[in-house]
Amino acid sequence: MTRVPRLDALKDVAAGVQLPGYAPQTHGAGIVHLGIGAFHRAHQAVYTDDALADGGGDWRIIGVSLRGTDVADALNAQNGLYTLLERSEAGTHARIIASVARVIAATRDRAGVMKALTDPATRIVSLTVTEKAYGIQRDTGRVDLAHPAIAHDLADPQNPIGVIGFLCEGLRLRRAEGLPPFTVLCCDNLPENGKMVRACVVDFAKRVDTDLGDWIASHVAFPSTMVDRITPASTEKTLLDVARMVGAEDQAAIETEPFIQWVIEDHFPQGRPAWEVGGAIFVDDVAPYEQMKLSMLNGAHSMIAYAGFLAGCTYVRDAMGNRGLSQLVARHLNAAAETLEPLSGIDLDAYGQALAARFCNPEIAHETYQIAMDGTEKLPQRLLKPALRALDNGQDLRPFAFAVAAWMRYCLGKREDGTGYALRDPREARIAAALAASTMDAGSISDALHGLSDVFSAELRDHAPWREMVEAILSVILEGGMQSAIDLEARQLQR
Ligand code: CS2
User: Fold this and answer.
1) How many domains are there within the chain?
2) Same domain, 316 and 451
3) Residue 191 DSSP code
């Protein structure tokens, strides 16, 4: 390939690539975003780009990487510019996004992060840091004192390293300086994510200073949001395609699907960008939308991840090409939909069919192994809560039991040919210890994993028919392998 210059200005971008509809340098920053990974760049940064082009305002984003330095190095060398590829059967659309002003790597510039958090211009702090980064005890809503970042930040609150610690210290300094607080906007796949993060920040703050906790509780807005866009990790191919289409080297390029959705509670006391310009929907209560997306899209995704990975499907699209598994996906989507209350303006059947079509997108290489990560953080809202609702409604529990049994088999950390893989779960050590103490038959594996009491609620754990179903499915998977368990399960659907 001929060498191309680095993408750092808009003037050199090849024809045919969509450019921002505004002059980036004429807009100041108003948002600090913690966790500037691919998802943020494919989602909230795009809505902000649309809002800047249409509504204007000083709403550019200062990104923060909490762990690594790569994204900061890549984006800062490009003046924050990056390419977004939207891929589908209809073709690939390239667009330059200019809403990110710069990125700070927290591990080497904590003072820079604090400065951004306490800048009077900062009115929103948004977050995509993954479920496990918060350190929330799901059942109590309080901080998990055993979480490494929470433990560190409680011991030294003025020198935070974690999400909750940064939010709390930023708010403390703003209050001390007489500045209005920023609005905290959680964009992670957690149920009632705003409420959850609020409970955690308030609990953390009260442990540091009771007055601060009370002040946050009464002055800081934490709107909940439902976010959606399937965004696989970038690959070598992403970067090569971008170099060809844009005519510039872009080390921060990302790829995603055409679909995008954002439902937000409209509670922004310090103002917000005109995100509705890009199609964001503002509602009074996001909870039913979150529940729908978590149990249908993400629930089916997790089922696909565990069953698909073990059946040899590298990508979600391969799982959808697996006859038996795609039938189980349809079953799962229907079962999850049945657990939901009707939602005005939404046809759940059509939503489920659209999800299946999105999973089939042949141009999106979304690894099952990527989705399988952090299972214990994902299972509760994606599979276990829906299973409990199904139980309450007297519905069939089997689709959920199948997905959970697939996860249990995945927890063994070995493919069917005996080769191993890393589990990549924050409870990995506890899973390993529980399994080591079991006799490794279906019953003892299921007992051991149901013993993770911060993952499985007592209601499900103590429900004998559920336990029997999970154990029976797991035993079929262990005996005949995942593919034959899938096929057997799918055959039962025909009857
Ligand atoms: C996926 C999500 O990796 C995962 O766990 O289920 O990232 C999913 O792709 C997004 O929530 C789609 O909006």
Assistant:
1) 2
2) yes
3) T
Ligand 1 near 226 CB (within 6 A): no
* 189 Cα to the center of ligand 1, angstroms: 8
SS3 217: helix
Our answer on whether the CB atom of 228 is closer than 6 Å to any ligand 1 atom is yes
CB atoms within 10 A of CB 174: 20
The domain boundary residue, chosen from 240, 261, 283? 283
Span 113-134, mean pLDDT?
Answer: 98
In a domain, 4, yes or no: no
Residue showing tokens 């002003």: 101
| 293 & 245 share domain | no
DSSP per-residue letters across 122-158: --EEEE---GGGS-B-TTT-SB-TTSHHHHHHHHSTT
**CA torsion angle 401 406 412 416 (round to 10):** 140
Owning domain of residue 135: 10-283
Distance (Å, whole) CA 320 – CA 169: 46
Same domain, 352 and 443: yes
Element (H, E) at 100: strand 100-105
Average pLDDT value over all residues in the chain? 97
Is there a single domain that holds both residue 165 and residue 226? yes
Rounded-to-integer distance, Cα 39 and Cα 4, Å:
26
Which residue has tokens 């960008």?
Answer: 273
Q: Would you give the distance in Å from CA 94 to the centre of its chain?
A: 23
Number of Cβ atoms within 10 Å of the Cβ of 437 = 11
Q: Are residues 201 and 60 part of one domain? A: yes
The CA dihedral of 399, 403, 404, 408, to the nearest 10 degrees, is 150
Whether residue 1 is predicted with pLDDT greater than 80 in this model: the reply is no
Contacts of 489 (CB under 8 A, 6+ apart): 324, 328, 402, 473
| Residue 304 beta carbon below 6 angstroms from any ligand 1 atom | no
Q: Which of 249, 265, 283 is the last residue of a domain?
A: 283
Among the atoms of ligand 1, which is closest to the Cα of residue 261?
13
DSSP state of 420: B
198 Cβ below 6 A of ligand 1: no
136: domain CATH number? 3.40.50.720
Query: Residues 442-452: pLDDT tens digits?
Result: 999 999 999 99
Single pTM value for the model:
0.97
Written as six digits, the tokens of 417 are: 């040919």
298 in ligand 1 pocket by Cβ < 6 Å? yes
